[in-house]
Amino acid sequence: MEIEEKPAEGVPPNEAHMEKLTEKPKRRTRRRMLIFIAVSLFNVGLLALLASQLLVPAQNQSGSTADNSPLIGHPAPDFTLAVLSAHPAPVLHLASFRGKPVVVNFWASIMKIPKPMG
To answer: What are phi and psi of 55, to 5 degrees?
Structure first.
């Protein structure tokens, strides 16, 4: 039991059929456009949130160890290093560099020496 829709009076049947066919693509186009606009606005919002978080300096965390460290603001403990030299040389004391900038590089190699093949 199919009910046929009759075209409006004065409109030929072919034109009425063409109007039906063009209605759905208009709806799809409108729907796609609304989805595109909604997704675009969402993305712009996320970018704005990201930019606001990157531009604002981070707050200090309450559990930060930097604020509670007993070494901050105090002199480094003195230590002694042997000088790597072919000739005997005196040892270095950290205290002898008082008042001068010092960079201490703790370096270690974890790579093993390759064994000769053969």
So the answer is: -85, -20
Tell me: the pLDDT tens digits for 41-72?
999 999 999 988 888 776 655 555 556 777 77
Q: How far apart are CA 2 and CA 79, in angstroms?
A: 98
* pLDDT tens by residue, 74-109: 878 888 888 888 888 888 888 888 888 888 777 777
How far, in Å, CA of 79 to CA of 85, rounded? Answer: 19
Token reading at 112: 């093993």
Q: Smallest Cα–Cα separation from 23: which of 10, 1, 5, 36?
A: 5
Instruction: Mark 42-67 as b/e (b = at least 16 C-beta within 10 Å).
Output: eeeeeeeeeeeeeeeeeeeeeeeeee
Q: Read off the amino acid at residue 108.
A: A
* pTM, to two decimals: 0.33
Round the average pLDDT of the chain to a whole number and report it: 77
Rounded-to-integer distance, Cα 85 and Cα 80, Å: 15
**pLDDT for residue 38:** 97
